[in-house]
Design brief:
The complex is a heterodimer of chains A (about 170) and B (about 180). Chain A is mostly helical and about 170 residues long. Helices cover about 60% and strands about 10% of the residues of chain A. Classes of the chains: A mainly alpha (about 170), B mainly alpha (about 180).
Chain lengths: ~170, ~180
C-alpha cells in the first residue's frame, strides 16, 4: 500500500484533488483494496442516505399547504416589493387627486355663492336674509361677505382686504 | 420570487429534521424559515444560491430557538432527549426498507456538526464552501467534521455488520440438534 497515496483518500472523497492527482489516486485505487473499500462504502453510504432522506422524510401535505398559504398571502399583501409599492402609491395618488377635484367642484367660490351658502347653512334668527337682488362684484383677490344687520335697505359687506364701495344696486 | 421558494420546501424540511430530530419541531422550523424568507426576499442577490440562503435562515433560527430553550434543556436532559430524539418507529421500520431507516438512524446518531456536514454534502449535494456558508464554520473545520463523520459512519456500519453476522451464527447454532 502506497501510504502517500492513501493520505489522499479524504481529499479524493472531498473532491479536492487536482485532475492529475485524481487520475494518480484512481490508479492507486486499483492496487489498494483498503482505499477501494472505503471509497465503495462511501459511495454506497451517500446513495443510501440520499435515497433514505428523500423517501422517508417527505414534508406532510399539511406542511405543504401551510407554507403555500403563507407564500400566497405574503405575495398578495407585500407592499415592500418595488412593483407593489408603485401600484399602491399610484392608487393613493389618484384617490387624492379625485378627492381634490371633487372638493374644488363643490366649493362655493364667488361672494354671492358664499352668501347663499351661509344663508342656507346658517339662517338668520330674525328671518331677514341678504338681498338677492344685489350683485356684488369684487376683485379676484378680495373676499367679501354680506352681513345681515336687521335692516333690509342697508347692505353691509365685510371685505378683506378693505376696499371701497363696489356694490352695484339694480 | 416567492414562486422560487416553494420547490425548496422538501430540502428545508429535511434539514430541519436533521437540526431538530423531531417531526413537529421540524415542521414549525420549516414554516418559520419560509416566513422569515418571505420577509427578507429582497436580500437575495443570486437566485441560484437560494437554497443555501434558506438553509442559513433555518440554521440561524434553530440556534436562536436553542438559546431560548437552553435553560429548560439544561434542567431536564432526559425529557429533552425524549422529546427531541427522532427515530423511525418500529412499525415504520418494518413497513419501509430497513436499510434506509437504519442509514438515517446512523446519521442521526452522529454529533450535531458531523451530522449536518455529512447531510449537506451527501444528501443535499452542497459543496464544502456552501456548507461553510450555511453553518458559519471554516473550511478546515468542515473538512475535519466530514472526515470524522465518514469514519464514524464506517465504524458503525462495520459494527452493525459484525453484530448481524454474530446473530446469524448464533441462530444457526441454536437450530442444530
Amino acid at each position: 500500500m502506497n501510504s502517500a497515496s492513501c493520505d489522499w483518500l479524504d481529499d479524493y472523497l472531498d473532491g479536492d484533488l487536482s485532475a492529475p492527482d485524481k487520475i494518480c489516486f484512481e490508479g492507486h485505487l486499483q492496487a489498494c483494496s483498503d482505499c477501494r473499500q472505503v471509497v465503495d462504502e462511501w459511495r454506497t453510504t451517500n446513495a443510501l442516505l440520499k435515497q433514505a432522506s428523500e423517501q422517508l422524510e417527505r414534508p406532510s401535505v399539511r406542511l405543504q399547504i401551510h407554507v403555500a398559504q403563507n407564500l400566497i398571502s405574503h405575495h398578495r399583501f407585500d407592499v415592500r416589493s418595488p412593483s407593489h409599492r408603485l401600484i399602491v402609491m399610484t392608487t393613493a395618488g389618484l384617490c387624492a387627486l379625485a378627492a381634490l377635484f371633487v372638493c374644488c367642484v363643490r366649493m362655493p367660490s364667488t361672494p354671492i355663492q358664499l352668501a347663499q351658502h351661509d344663508a342656507v347653512a346658517n339662517p338668520s334668527p330674525s328671518g331677514n336674509h341678504a338681498r338677492q337682488d344685489v350683485v356684488l362684484s369684487f376683485p379676484d383677490d378680495v373676499i367679501g361677505v354680506p352681513i345681515d344687520i336687521g335692516q333690509p335697505d342697508v347692505i353691509v359687506v365685510w371685505t378683506y382686504p378693505t376696499v371701497n364701495s363696489v356694490i352695484e344696486q339694480e | 420570487m416567492d414562486g422560487g421558494l416553494e420547490p425548496h420546501l422538501p430540502h428545508v424540511y429535511r434539514l430541519a429534521l436533521r437540526l431538530t430530530r423531531n417531526v413537529n419541531c421540524a415542521e414549525d422550523l420549516t414554516q418559520e424559515t419560509f416566513l422569515r424568507a418571505c420577509q427578507r426576499i429582497d436580500q437575495v442577490k443570486h437566485p441560484a444560491a437560494i437554497r443555501t440562503w434558506l438553509f442559513r435562515i433555518a440554521f440561524n433560527l434553530m440556534n436562536d430557538q436553542f438559546r431560548t430553550m437552553a435553560p429548560a434543556n439544561e434542567s431536564n436532559h432526559a425529557a429533552t432527549d425524549a422529546l427531541s430524539c427522532h427515530r423511525p418507529t418500529p412499525d415504520k421500520v418494518a413497513e419501509t426498507n430497513d436499510d434506509l431507516a437504519q442509514a438515517l438512524q446512523r446519521l442521526d446518531a452522529l454529533p450535531t456538526q458531523q451530522r449536518l456536514v455529512l447531510f449537506l454534502v451527501t444528501v443535499e449535494q452542497l459543496s464544502l464552501a456552501e456548507v461553510c456558508e450555511v453553518l458559519g464554520i471554516t473550511m478546515t473545520n468542515a473538512k475535519a467534521q466530514l472526515s470524522l463523520a465518514r469514519k464514524r459512519m464506517r465504524d458503525e456500519l462495520q459494527r452493525q455488520t459484525v453484530s448481524q453476522s454474530n446473530s446469524i451464527s448464533i441462530s444457526v447454532k441454536s437450530d442444530r440438534p
